Amino acid sequence: MGNNQKLSIIEKCAYGAGDLACNLFWGLVCVASAFYTEYYGISAAAAATMMLVVSYFDLVLDVFIGAAADRFDTKWGKFRPWILYGFVPFCVIGFFAFFTPGFADFGKIVYAYVTYLLFRIMYSVVNVPYGAMLGVISEDPKERDSVSAYRNVGAQIGFFLSFAMVFKFVNFAQGATTVSNSTAFSYVVAVYTVLALALLFFCFSCTKERVKPVKEENNSLGQDLKDLVTNRPWISLSIAGIALILFTACHNMCVAYYAKYYIAETVVVEEGSKIVGVSQDNSGKDIYVLENGRVDSLSKGSIVTRTIVDGKEEVATVSIERSFAAMNAEGEMASIEKVRGDGAKPEQGDYVTYFKYDVNGSFWGMKLDWELFYTLIAGMGTLLTILGTMLIQPVVRKFGKKETWLSCFVISGLVSLVFIVLGKDSFSTIIIFNWLFSLIIGPTGFIMWSMYADVADNAEVKTGRRATGLIYSSATIAQKFGYANANSLPLFFLAAVGFVSNDLSMSLETKEMVKYVFALVPLVGAVLGVLALFFYNINEEKIIENSAKLAELKKGK
Question: Which of 536, 479, 499, 17 is nearest to 248 (CA)?
């Protein structure tokens, strides 16, 4: 069999659709810290601990799924059946992982652990074999590079729709239905679920596995793992993959906090009103009766506004934030978390203040709020990653995958440092530098996935055994390990400097620390990535040589 297997545009699009579907949910993982603290209603420390524990537990599973997929063989191939049998439970469980039940605090934490763990397990069941398909979809390295680019584009579209747009979609859903912000979040995730179901079925139906190993062997998992841990290119690439996710995900996860707590200013809409009664409805949701007669049962506050437009009164319900405060030992008002500890609940005698986050500026004529500011940074960032994936392919062909990726790490790391010196009023400059960051580092995801296929070829030439599923499972492990730390690390830093969500008394020093966490914490990934890639030793000549050797070996079968 030759190595000139060409794929149709439809098949490449179908493969890309698979990661589009997966990233509709993975984008939610990237904002999971904001979801659990701002919508679900648990503390930053509880959310960080839960995500870290679940993520590390989930890592071990990927190895076994990859190894099992290598030993699985059906009329549809080794990897496609996992998509067929896994995509429905994956999507359904994904919906419930980002659904807010009407439980008390302890019940919410238990529910979060259970559903988030099941979601991460099902993500592995679908995504590990999906990723491994890239190594068997064609023997032609150039075709694999092309398919990898389609995958990266699909991934970025999914990421844009979820990570970049979810807060705007939730805001729209809440305004259109007047439900709580957590219920509006569930509405948006329901739409993602239906879309993901259709895309994953399209991926299964219109792709094909073509690459067969030189020889079929029933290798032991122990032998495959031994080959893996002595594989220098795999070790270097896996560390670089962890570093890439740590770098980009730390940056992306911090964008919402940077926009909301550093860029925006708090504007009080209604001064503190005393809570004179606390009760619960049938679902367990807290209801607060205020001294001014208001009854508040939403996760966010809402204020009815009346304005006169062209002589007519227009009535609107405006969604706003709320902050609970109590008297501390010094006789001063402070957030209830600072007075009674992390996870404190409002009690009778506490005070609630309604406020909003306001960005006093505009960008290209658009009046900014923090959600729009976030969307401009994250949304355009993912679109620029798609553009960068198209633009970077000639660069990769000219200079090589390793050299291009190294340069992207260095340049985007320097861009991240710029945010330290940018003032909060430099709206346009902040947005443009964020776009530049995404344009430079975002496209390297396609380079990474393509390099894993090169590692699988190199390992087969060296050992005579092909373990595509196991090698690609390590890529997913690297991705999850990076995200586990990227989601939790900034939250631990923020908690250490006294950050409390929606705290009206937040000090200027704490707000300044939000900026430093945004600019500096991601650089850990950039430095680690540069060091790892220096030890990667598969160059472009070696890729061509391995492809030719494998083609000759298969001809002699």
Answer: 479
Cα dihedral across residues 343, 347, 350, 352: positive or negative:
positive
Contact, 371 vs 263, CB < 8 A? no
Could you write out the DSSP letters of every residue in 469-509?
A: HHHHHHHHHHHHHHHHHHHHHHHHHHHHTT--TT-TT--HH
CB 224 within 8 A of CB 467: yes
Query: Which of helix, strand or coil describes residue 31?
Result: coil
Mean pLDDT of the residues in the chain: 83
- Coil, strand or helix at 268: strand
How confident is the model over 325-347, as pLDDT tens digits?
Answer: 888 888 888 888 888 877 788 88
Contact 39, 299 (CB under 8 A): yes
Radius of gyration of the chain (CA): 25
Length of the chain: 557
pLDDT (tens digit per residue) in 415-454:
999 999 998 888 788 888 989 999 999 888 888 888 888 8
Strand partners, 362: 367
From residue 46, alpha-carbon distances to 18, 234, 339, 388, 517 in Å are 32, 35, 18, 37, 19
Closest by alpha carbon to 250, among 54, 516, 37? 516
CB 138 within 8 A of CB 212: no
pLDDT beyond 50 at 1: no
Give the integer Cα–Cα distance in Å for 30 and 484: 10
Closest alpha carbon to 83 in 212, 205, 213:
205
The pLDDT, as a whole number, for residue 123 is 93
Confidence of residue 2 (pLDDT cuts 50, 70, 90): very low
CA angle 100, 495, 93 (to 5 degrees): 25
Task: Output the pLDDT for position 192.
Answer: 97
The single residue listed with the structure tokens 């139906």 is: 205
> Which position has the token pair 């405006």?
318
User: What sign does the dihedral 243-244-247-249 (CA atoms) show?
Assistant: negative
Tokens of 429: 């400059």
Q: What is the identity of the amino acid at 238?
A: S
DSSP conformational letter for 260: I
Which of 238-242, 458-462, 497-501 has the largest mean confidence? 238-242
What is residue 537's three-state secondary structure?
coil
Burial 474-496 (b: 16+ CB within 10 A, else e): bbbbbbbbbbbbbbbbbbbbbee
| Cα 140–chain centre separation | 31
Q: Which CATH number does 9-264+368-555 carry? A: 1.20.1250.20
- Going by their DSSP bridges, the two strands 312-327 and 333-335 should be labelled as antiparallel
Which segments of the chain belong to CATH 1.20.1250.20? Answer: 9-264+368-555
Per-residue pLDDT reduced to its tens digit, 98-142: 998 888 888 999 999 999 999 999 998 999 899 888 888 888 888
- Alpha carbons 152 and 158: distance in angstroms, whole number: 10
Angle at 134 between CA 87 and CA 538, to 5 degrees: 145
